[in-house]
């Protein structure tokens, strides 16, 4: 008997990941028939958040390599408006962990990075070269945040390519005014998100996503009927990845059927980060 068909197994892994993610079979074109390409796509399609870690350390050299890969990511107009803070100081890590007690994986992750949006350097560069800076408006903030987001995502994929697990932490923005002096952030530099990195300690699930019929549009915007589409998605997600508890049952009660739409509607019934705009303006960004 011949050995296993690795190309077929890669295609099967990609097909299975996409089906679990979106609940539909997505065709595999002939021009992605190569085994290595299928495995790369399967890894992207099957990516998942990790919140438990093994004791295996993540070296300084590996962190620096991941940062280099992250900062190789595309940047709007090559402005390079993103920076990474590698949090090695135990006291700073302990402060962050105390701010996020409901996220114990932040404290336990072998490594923690903070990705920052930087609107400062291009203004300094303009002044250094004796040119006026005519773009201190919303687009400066928007571009810097986009750069930070792309760098974080690239770092995540680089880490996962070598077997590491990651968990992005957007809640660092909930405590931006506390973290700001802790990181000694100058004007027009703000924290975008944290990233836990470590060798996974246990397998985690794929999170089912909204159907492509709702989120991919051809030429013009098209929305399917919301109620029925969300009902179907909620049922599929509850079957694969049910929530362990309902959000604020003391306020909203307990629903017999509880899916993604119920969780997110409850979550966003509570005001979140309403003071973040004031913080961003205090940091010198013009949001007009």
Q: How would you portray this structure in words?
A:
With 288 residues, this protein is of the alpha+beta class. The chain folds into three domains: 6-45, no CATH class; 60-204, NADH Oxidase, CATH 3.40.109; 212-267, no CATH class. Helices cover 46% and strands 10% of the residues. It has 13 helices and four strands. The protein has helices at 6-22, 35-45, 60-70, 90-99, 104-108, 120-128, 138-161, 176-183, 212-215, 226-240, 249-252, 260-267, 276-282, and strands at 82-86, 111-118, 165-169, 189-198. It has a four-stranded antiparallel sheet with strand order 1-2-4-3. The longest helix has 24 residues, at 138-161. The chain is globular and about 55 Å long. The N and C termini lie far apart (68 Å).
Question: What are the main properties of this structure?
Answer:
288 residues, alpha+beta, NADH Oxidase, 3 domains, 4-stranded antiparallel sheet
Strand order of the largest sheet: 1-2-4-3
Shape: globular
CATH superfamily of the largest domain: NADH Oxidase
Structural class: alpha+beta
Question: What fraction of residues sit in β-strands?
Answer: 5-15%
Distance between the termini: 68 Å
The Rg value, from CA coordinates, equals 21 Å
CATH class (first level) name of the largest domain: Alpha Beta
Which residues form runs of ≥5 with pLDDT under 50?
Answer: 1-7
* Secondary structure tally: strands: 4
Amount of helix: 40-55%
Oligomer: single chain
Number of helices: 13
Q: Give the rounded overall mean pLDDT.
A: 94
Taking the sheet with the most strands, its summary is: 4 strands, antiparallel
- CATH A-level architecture of the largest domain: 3-Layer(aba) Sandwich
Taken in chain order, the helices and strands follow as HHHEHHEHHEHEHHHHH
Tally the structural domains: 3
Looking at the structure, the CATH topology of the largest domain is: NADH Oxidase
